[in-house]
Amino acid sequence: MSSMFDRKKMIKRYRLVAYAIVIVGIAILFKVVYIATAEHGYWMEVADLFTKDSVDVKPVRGNILSSDGRLMAGSLPEYRLFVDFRAGGDDNEVRDSLWDNKIDSLCIGLHDIFPEKTAAEFKAHLEKGRAKGSRHWPVWRRRVNYSVYSEVKRLPIFNTSANAGGFHVEKFNARKRPFGSLAKRTIGDLFGAKDTAKFGLELSYDSVLRGKTGKIRRQRIRGKNLNITQIDPVNGADIVTTIDVNMQDLAERSLISELKEVNGNVGVAVVMEVKTGDVKAIVNMTKCADGEYYEIKNSAVSDLLEPGSVFKTASLMVALDDGVVDTTYRVDTGSGIWDMYGAKMRDHNWHRGGYQVLTLPQTLEYSSNIGVSRIIDKYYGNNPEKFVEGLDRVGIREDLKLPIVGYAPPRVRMPKKNKHGQYVNWSKTALPWMSIGYETQVPPISTLTFYNAIANNGTMMRPRFVKQVVKDGQVVQEFPPQVIKQRICKEKTLREIQTILEHVVSQGLGKKAGSHSFKVAGKTGTAQISKGASGYKAGTVSYLLSFVGFFPADAPRYSCIVCIQKTGLPASSGFSAQVFHNIAEGIMAQSLKLDVADARDSTSILTPDVKNGDLLAADYVLTHLGIRTNKNWNGSYAEGNPIWGTARRATADVTLSRTERYPANVVPDVKGMGARDAVFALESRGVKVRLNGRGKVTRQSLAPGHVIKKGETCTLKLEL
What we know:
The protein is of the alpha+beta class and 720 residues long. Helices cover 32% and strands 24% of the residues. Strand 7 and strand 8 form a beta hairpin.
């Protein structure tokens, strides 16, 4: 046994094997550390040769267009500007020589483009990035449009190749609204730089507008990145809305003017085309902490408030349609105060002795609470279900199913009984007050839809916000007008209600809504706003003041509702009627077709006097009028970025000249501008504006070059 197995010899062999394994392990460990440190850069470059990434490619979001094809929201390219201070590889001498020779010229050029920052500040900023050897150093802190990007790209250093000068950009598709805040809550918006819809049509039609994301595979070969398309992105389609930009602007200006006049809290104005139900204008204004009015909430479709007297039309329509009364019916309203099951019902003129006896049409003309509620209570008091069923029939309770996030359908409760035949959600006072617009909640858009049906000979149309989906100039989807109810009442009832509503304006409480040029029909409404559990009279009383109607009354084309919420007295539906009047007059004036040749004579001046201001807008108008412009600037109207300048009229042309660009923190010179451009130039810098007079700006209270302080106001004097 011992001769065959020598233990000592075997242990020596095992030791040799163990030592060899340890030595090899140490060598491997050393090699790993060496590769991870000394050869790290080399092997990372080798790895890059074979790295493949799948990268999303975002599509271009579709546009939102007005009814006549004008851009209301669109995606335009914006750029962030960067510089790579390691561009050019290891040839530091060439790179440093370029920067040393050209950096002063570059910084002066940057200051000219971005006057908010001095050339010295630009130089210090760039030198800081250069010292760090940054590969992605920002040139400017904000995004810029294509026009500004093009100017920067022409500057020294940046006008060389990206490998030589290091100038490069990140491109974004920014959402722009050329008409500013017009119909903002309805058109909608996106969350910052993300392609994520927040509200409005942007959200409702997000799947149409968004398109489909594509994918590319990036592969690095011989030091270059090659993009290999896997899935092509599909750009979003455009949607064509029913909004008319001119009507929208008119409605917004009319409403804001009245809100400021009466110190209103919230204002709504909606214009609808009678035959189609197309929403031509929709304005929602809320008073904010700075005293100005902005579109914060789409109150027209979401506000569930008691509508007040505009509801009375539906109540009497039910009674007339059921045949329980006719237009000769007379009702005693007493001295303006009437006891309704222990609660006092009052007419608006109760302190002057009331209306005494009224005919049924007069109860609407003078908006008598007592008259309407007594009629409805007399014929439906013992069977309130029949009255609510009648409201269903005329369409005031209809769920419109609007494609607007936040829309709330009307809430008009149906009486219910328990197994013992007792009402569980009803009281004796419920019906009288419901008949005059209390104990109900109806958004303004539903009230307008009901009145639009009256104007449309009894056919109720669903409000339409979008007409078409368009892709590459081709209509891919149509949204035709939709009929909700073919007839809301009998023909006789309809004619009687149409006549009564016309009399409300011609001889009743709605006279302020009328016009000398065409007939108007409609109804006023004043309601106290409930404060929930606190009731109607907790603290200062708030009111909802409304007017809803249609015009021209003898051949209706448009219907319109105006609602104003305000706190305290005076509180008159005449405020809303005045806005309705201004909107109706403006819309009908736009319909006038006059031949410009009729205005020409031997003394006519055919080249217009052009105000200073936005040269892009002036050039656009003059070009389309066929008037030649001489200009020493460039820019694109489609980009929607004002280029400020002066206009000088000659015999046959107009010379447009660009003026000095003012920094964002100083007051610009707005003399010679029209009100619109002057207000934009100042308010975009945070300055509040007061206007006196009309015409061109001749004086401004804050001098050009004045450094702006927060909350300052500039008063502008305008003269013809």
